[in-house]
Structure formats: structure tokens, C-alpha cells
Amino acid sequence: MRSILSVSDLSASELDSLVKRSAVLKKQMRARKPPSTLAGKVVGLLFEKPSTRTRTSFEVATIRLGGDPVYLSAGELQLSRGEPVRDTARILGGYLDAIVGRVYSQETLSELARYSGRPVVNALSDTEHPTQIISDLLTISEVKGKLKGLTTAYIGDGNNVSNSLLLGGALTGMNVLVACPEGYEPDSKIYKAARSIARKTGADIATVRDPKEALANADVVYTDVWVSMGEESEKEKKTRAFKGYQINAALMKSAPKSAVVMHCLPAHRGLEITDDVIEGKQSVVWQEGENKLYGAAASLEFICGAH
User: Fold this and answer.
1) Where are the alpha helices (DSSP H) in 41-185?
2) Under CATH, which architecture does the 7-128+292-303 domain have?
3) Strands of 260-263's sheet, edge to edge?
């Protein structure tokens, strides 16, 4: 059993297998004939942040695969009264078979894995969002037929999603260009690691300032919220900084007509993306959102050693 705390915890072949397994599970679940690969497993969902898609996808995935989910809101646990994460982790390790963590700090996930003795999957932290990228790669492979050699232009904040996208692109041989204002670049260590991986896979990993430059040869146009959970006090500052980075009809003219638009949701319509684009013909946002279920299912199987 293995944890997935970062996309970099996976080899190129493992990530490829997870994406392909997600596609198989999608067919099986849509046919209402999923395998019972998590039968007898109890999966704890420890969430410090609100969630719609991530919580629902992991709960449904666990149930569909024959397991039992237990939702653990951090606000209802002794963590909210100051109990150390390592103490909580030790107890949860005695009760659960696996843990899904949606947390503020990457270090919380590391402690959960270290002290619980159980496999942990990162369902979002301040540093990465690996399961989002697994389902995103599934979406891209569905609509474009491949990953290697494609170009994804990520426009906006160099946040946890952009960090994981850089690693995912590098491992699969997919070019990733991040267009962001100065001071809002992806994590420097992750960026360096992604470029190192890319040298082996032939991917082009880069950051640019001009979103039009990033869009010029894009097969995929990707954006995310400018203001992440916990950053609400920075809304006005970030809105000013990201002027010109909104995915709108005018900016999309810089991209090939064959480019598709992705957003990991929730979307702040009118900020990082406009209604006409997210609802438009190039949008695959809703397909991307559904695919979170299958990426979650494949990730659970992986960490539980169930496939």
C-alpha cells in the first residue's frame, strides 16, 4: 500500500496506469457494474476545507467499489481543540484502512501518513492536488486522444493545482506553460523538479508572463480560482494583479480553435473565467468534473493495493 501525497510520488508508468484505470472504472461505473475492489475496507475522509466535488467523488467511489466511507470534519474532531495531528493519526490508523485528506497544510498529510501507518491520499493541500490532475489527464486523453506532445496552457495563479499539473505534464510528456503575474509563480522546488523530469520525457515546462504567448499553440486552456480558500483577505489585491489573465472570448482568440477549456471548479464566474467561455462549445469543464469520481476511485484502489 502506497500514499499519494504528491504527483511526484508516482512514476511515469504508475501515473499512466492510474489514468488508464480511471477510464476503465468510468465505463464500469456508468454501466453500474463496478468491481468490489474495496470490499471490507473503511476509508476515512478527513476534511479541513469545504468541498462539493472532492468529498462526493471520494464517498461515492468508496461505496461503488464496495467499501465504507467515514466522513471526518476537522471542526468536529479534537483537532479543532488543539490535539496534535500525530495523536489523531495514531488513533485513526487503528480504525481505518485508508485516509483521504483535504487539508490546509501539506505537512498535515505527511504526519497522517507517518503516524497512522495507513496509506493517505492528498485530496488537496496548500501545495498540491494530485487526484485532480489524475482526473484532468483522463479528461485530456478522452478529448484529445493522447497526452504526450500536447500543450496545456495554465493561466492564472501558480497554486496547488498548477504545481500538480506541472508534475503531471512532465511525467506524461505533455508540455505545460504557466502564464502568471510576477510574484504568483508555481512553487519553485516543484517547478525545478518538473523541469528535471521533463528533460527525460521530452516535455516543455515553462512559465511566461503573457497569457497570449501561452495560448498561441495550446491544445488545452486551463484556469483555476485566483483566490484560494484561506486567502479571502487577498481578493482585492489578487484581482488587480490578475487583470488581463481572465479566460474570456477575447483572450481565447489567441488560442487555436481546436483548444478546449478546463477549470477544476468551483469557478468564480466573472473573475478568472466568463460565463460564455465556461458554458461555451470549447468547454469540457463538466466532463472534467464528472471524471473526478473515476480519478478518486483509481487513487483509492492504488493506495489500498486493491488493483
Assistant:
1) 53-64, 85-95, 106-116, 130-144, 160-172
2) 3-Layer(aba) Sandwich (3.40)
3) 205-208, 175-179, 151-155, 220-223, 260-263
Name the CATH superfamily, with its identifier, for domain 132-289. Aspartate/ornithine carbamoyltransferase (3.40.50.1370)
Q: Could you tell me where in the chain the CATH 3.40.50.1370 domains are found?
A: 7-128+292-303, 132-289
Q: Of 12, 49, 20, which is closest to residue 169 (Cα–Cα)?
A: 12
**One-letter amino acid identity for 294?**
Y
Report d(CA 254, CA 210) in Å as an integer: 11
d(CA 122, CA 71): 15
Separation CA 61–CA 65 (nearest Å): 6
Q: How far is the CA of 182 from the CAs of 18, 124, 201, 209, 228, in angstroms?
A: 34, 24, 28, 7, 18
Full pLDDT tens readout for the chain, 307 residues:
799 999 999 999 999 999 999 999 999 999 999 999 999 999 999 999 999 999 999 999 999 999 999 999 999 999 999 999 999 999 999 999 999 999 999 999 999 999 999 999 999 999 999 999 999 999 999 999 999 999 999 999 999 999 999 999 999 999 999 999 999 999 999 999 999 999 999 999 999 999 999 999 999 999 999 988 777 888 889 999 999 999 999 999 999 999 999 999 999 999 999 999 999 999 999 999 999 999 999 999 999 999 8
148 is written with which cell numbers?
Answer: 504526450
CB neighbours (10 Å) of residue 133? 27
Contact residues for 25 (Cβ-Cβ < 8 A; gap 6+): 34, 294, 297, 298, 301
